Amino acid sequence: MSRHSEGAADALVIGWGNLLLSDEGVGVHALRRLERDYRFEPAVRLEDGGTSGLDLLPLFAEHDRILMLDAVALEAPPGEIRVIRNAEIRRVLTQKLSVHHLGVADVLAVAELLEYAPEEIVLVGIVPECVDLGLELSPTLRDAMPRFMVTLVSILQGWGVSVRELEMTESPKAGELCTAFG
Predict the structure, then answer these.
(1) Which CATH superfamily is domain 11-181 in?
(2) Which portions of the chain are predicted below pLDDT 50?
(3) End-to-end CA distance of the chain
(4) Angle at 104 between CA 99 and CA 128, to 5 degrees
(5) What's the longest Cα–Cα distance across the chain?
(6) Are 43 and 10 in contact (CB under 8 A)?
(7) pTM of the model
(8) What are the structural domain ranges in the chain?
(9) CB count, 10 Å around CB of 5?
(10) Nearest-angstrom CA–CA distance, 7 and 139
(11) Burial of 57 by CB count in 10 Å (0-12 exposed, 13-18 middle, 19+ buried)?
(12) Omega before 42 cis (within 30°)?
């Protein structure tokens, strides 16, 4: 049974990761790109999960569909993108890439126990190349980012969300986003 009116997409997108550890921050990088370059109808809630865990638990009770974006440790080459659904997500996250994976697995387990589980949870994961200290994505993940974005946009569209990519003239200029660093 839907928690919201029939026909509403009611989607939440969570970007997980640590921006200080290069490719480990890919989920947050992708979320920022969604915020900057895309518009959704009906509206989609975009949440920077960072390295949070149980703090985001209430959101699982509020949304029917949750799309999570993250780096995942898989036996696959760097840049490989995988779409992982529902119960399979917890199994994949047992191979911890970072401390926040414990938090994500905990959120999923507690949400299930509290019967907060949404109708569908999807993790779009990408295998990192580098998780060393650094603010930028590796060249491999930077090159894979367009495919990563296409994958997550197609999932949203499958949920009935109309996704419009903004033209370059519609997007804010980089200097407008980062005025604090001058």
Answers:
(1) HybD-like (3.40.50.1450)
(2) 1-7, 99, 101, 173-182
(3) 49
(4) 60
(5) 49
(6) no
(7) 0.84
(8) 11-181
(9) 8
(10) 40
(11) middle
(12) yes
Residue matched to tokens 């696959």: 76
Sequence letter at residue 171: S
pLDDT score, position 4: 47
Q: Retrieve residue 182's tokens.
A: 């001058």
> How far apart, in whole angstroms, are the C-alpha atoms of residue 182 and residue 171?
19
Side-chain-side CA neighbours of residue 151 (13 Å): 22
Identity at 180, one-letter amino acid code: A
SS3 track for the chain: CCCCCCCCCCEEEEEECCCCEHHHHHHHHHHHHHHHHEEEECCCEEEEEECCCHHHHHHHHHCCEEEEEEECCCCCCCCCEEEEECCHHHHHCCCCCCHHHHHHHHHHHHHHHCCCCCCEEEEEEECCCCCCCECCCCHHHHHHHHHHHHHHHHHHHHCCCEEEECCCCCCCCHHHHCHHHC
* β-strand pairing of 120-126 with 65-71: parallel
The tokens of 43 are what? 């509206």
Q: Which residue has the tokens 């911890």?
A: 96
Q: Which two tokens stand for residue 159?
A: 């949920």
Model pLDDT for residues 106-126, shown as the tens digit of each residue: 778 888 888 887 899 999 999
Give the pLDDT score at 177: 42
